[in-house]
Amino acid sequence: MIVKEKVDFQDCNQALTFLKSKVTEEIDIRLYLEVNEFAIEELLREISFKFQSNIKKMAIVCNNESIESIRKITNKFYDSEVKFFEIQENTKAKKWIQLKA
Hints:
Layout: E1 2-3, H1 9-22, E2 29-35, H2 41-51, E3 55-62, H3 64-77, E4 81-86, H4 90-96
Parallel strand pairs: 1-2, 2-3, 3-4
Helix pairs in contact: 1-2, 2-3
């Protein structure tokens, strides 16, 4: 999932609908989020409430200035393994999350 603009409620609902269509209770989610503009708080909160038990790993790719703000959210809402990467490290992030680069 690549977020290019400010995320609004409708965007969150579309992302959550997509995840719901792919998730069963026994599946582990490996989530790759690439954030080009810091506006991801609402989506992260919603994902955590609905899929927290399914999320195994999360790679968050964003600019360096956003990392600490997003880290506060993930530390608060997620028990899963979360790792941060800068935009230029997106290939490394995809490999870490075990997605094709």
